[in-house]
Amino acid sequence: MSGLAAGIRAAYFDQRVCILERHTTIGGLNSFYRLGGRDYDVGLHAVTNFTSKGHKRGPLALLLRQLRLRWDDFSLAPQIGSSIVFPGVQMDFNNDIDLLKSEISRAFPAEKDNFEGLLGRLLDYDDLEQADYDVSARQVLEETLGDPLLIEMLLCPVMWYGNSRENDMDFAQFCIMFRSIFLEGFARPFSGVRLILRLLVRKFRALGGELKLRCGVSRIAVEDERAVGVVLDNGEELQGHKILSSAGMVETLRLCDDLTEPAESSVGQLSFTETISILDRQPRQLNHEKTIVFYNDSEKFHWCKPVDGLVDTRTGVICSPNNFKYPRSDGELSDGVIRITSLASFDRWNQLDPDSYLLEKQKWYDRVTEVAVDYIPEFRNCVIDTDMFTPTTIRRFTWHDNGAVYGAVDKQLDGTTHLKNLFLCGTDQGYVGIVGTIVSGISMANRHLLRGSD
Amino acid sequence: MTPVEIREEILDILGDIAPDEDLGGLVDETNFRDQLELDSMDFLDIVMELRKRYRVQIPEEDYENLASMASTVAYLEPVMKDMQKN
User: In terms of Cα–Cα distance, which of A302, A330, A323, A297 is closest to A379?
Assistant: First the structure.
């Protein structure tokens, strides 16, 4: 999605752009697929950074202006409401920060003013500097808030949506994600991510951009410290003045034929399983009206790849795409859907032989859904179909090492590489999520493709 | 292009960049930043649109001349005087 956004910017300003996509369809980590007559989104639980029509500030408004799109084009329906659930404490939140404030006053009365202090300390998007990425979010929270449980509960959704680093988070990243989740909010187009992707592709092509699917790049040809072009899997060669890659830092460098040593890297370690349960009724008919439930089964929130085992169910995200305020004219999603995401070990899933892989998927589907019904109403007796993806699925379809959904631990904020005309966008450049990745593509196009003379 | 035409063109560009902004009350002497809710990326687009529409190349060190409508028109007048409005 970052590549499409960058392509739109470059094509709009009359550059000749070709997007090469390895997969059969677009979207990468934010793609979609069809199975058993149903449409599924890969990454999308919700679009974060939601602001309403006419709101001028923030990343969503910015990307709409930059891509010359209108707010209505995204058809974003706001969330009904979500929760953070820890043992003995639940806090609800929605797209109005006042709800979370009142929940904190209720559940942590001593923290009311401290929370205001935290809001005051949050850096605005334009004020973030490299140094802020080296500050520990946990440390800032410990300085600002007095109750460790509140700290853990706030970190839970922020890390889930998402943090590429284990255990702690860069304060800059914390500010970005806190703002996008709590101060802006969640929304979803009725028809899911495909609406956004099709919109971007249409725009790109209408501007003269070329999109080639099933065209994996196998090599970036390098001469005199410059990328001169790419070689595709089928042997075809394409030349270009500049190359922008959303494949990931390590994945991109691996393609460069001037590098024989594997790059020193901070490859992302965090990947996930996700179970998708299709229900024969709407979740609200089971009294489940929450959009997203972030749960954690102890007072301490553990954000790391599983220490042992394939999946860690101590924490998780339960998402119901039905539970958004869709316009009445759209009706309801045809099926009830419950998606449950859990932290998972890429290495251990990757080591399984095919038969064990299938068995483990079944076993973990059962385990994950069993844990989930501690937090949401029983739904398992209404399930008519299921699907599940694992870290290896993510790796297979996105080509990102380790199935790392949130990319490398250390981001390449300026998008540069060792080559003067090879640049990065996407999760390894800096932003995650749909709005984040689109902004990444736009910023990198602005910075590297549009600057300088023709 | 005359200064009036240049001004119209800049308004047109701003209308493209920020369709939600009310440009009717724009004060020429006041900085754009102080009256419009635009990001630094949006301001870059003024430069980009001028290049796209008129092949005008504005070096980065001159960007500060585009702070307000008045300064923008004054800066572009010599550059665009021989051009025809599209």
Answer: A323
